[in-house]
Amino acid sequence: MYAADQLPLLQNELELLADLVPLPGLRLIELGCGNARLARQLLQRFPACHVTGLEVDAIQHARNLAQPQAGLDFLSAGAQDIPFPAASFDLALMLKSLHHVPLPLLPQALSEVARVLKPGGHLYVSEPIYDGALNELVRLFNDEGVVRAAAQAALDQALATTGQWEAVTERRFAQAVSYRDFDEFEQRMMRPSFAQHDLSDAVITRVRAAFEPHMGPQGARFVRPMHVRLLRRTGH
């Protein structure tokens, strides 16, 4: 296990991505793009790139379409059925999204990503490590231990059996996460548009009681441990 306080603190994950993959001029696809925050930053720094963001959450997809940006387009689709021809992209990003793919569809999703990547293209997967104070809070209402482990196992299986991938490198780091108060935590973490958690009054009360000791003058601050795996698409 990698404790959050033992990992290097990374302020902006774009710095790590840019260190691992030469980004200028690439055509990228982000699977489960959410609000596409990193993609938007990437395009500001590397305007010759193009990013296509796929999102299955209709509410978030509508928000994304309402905030256009040069070099960025959005489609409503999942990783298990990517609406592009083979070898369309240089780099695929999955930022805290692989574990949201339905478990039976994980092998299909990784095969689809391999299909749309050019030979020699990269898959950058960034997943939360199941550890730390924030994780202990979240698991009170949304225990992701099983799905996060399944996501890592699916990567291992794809590397070992499909012939589509080779491992390039791995990195572990910590991300700073903060919330002004419990209301912001509840809105962002307990009531996201892409999920419906079972939030009884008793659950909310229990989570609030666990959250409040983390509050300080500047809100509640946490450190989230992260695990990045970079894979390369085989072929020439």
Automatic annotation (TrEMBL):
Molecular functions per Gene Ontology: S-adenosylmethionine-dependent methyltransferase activity
Record has Lipid biosynthesis as a keyword: no
Boundaries of every Methyltransferase type domain copy: 30-125
Listed Pfam families: Methyltransf_11
CDD domains membership: AdoMet_MTases
Keywords of the record: Methyltransferase, Transferase
Keyword rRNA processing: no
BP terms from Gene Ontology: methylation
Gene3D superfamilies per UniProt: Vaccinia Virus protein VP39
PANTHER family to which the protein is assigned, alphabetical: METHYLTRANSFERASE (PTHR43591), METHYLTRANSFERASE TYPE 11 DOMAIN-CONTAINING PROTEIN (PTHR43591:SF109)
Record-given protein name: Class I SAM-dependent methyltransferase
